[in-house]
Amino acid sequence: MVAKFGLAVEKRMQIEIALPDDLARDLTAKWGNLERQILEIVVVQAYRDRVISAGKVRQLLGMATRLEVDAFLKQKGAFLHYDQSELEADRQTHEQLRHEGKLSLLYWLCLLRLATFSV
Asked: How many domains are there within the chain?
């Protein structure tokens, strides 16, 4: 990381890929910006492999919101990292809130949204 004008600026590695001209032309015709597509492929795979978080996906791809990241990852078939222990913790929180009478429609909508992700 490098400081530039008092702000932290992340250094980036430049990678060069040699593709035959006809393949590069075909991929550009199909995908548009090859550099962006390759960056997205690397970022999605890094997320799937748990090398980076959803927050890092957001930062690397310049997305404005977490919802935008969630929609992007879902479109790419890379689902929320949510394991059994997190599910159990959420279940316990749900029970506590239910006993306290603090459950709301918003909470139920969040549960429904989580159900769309793989566990």
From this structure: 2
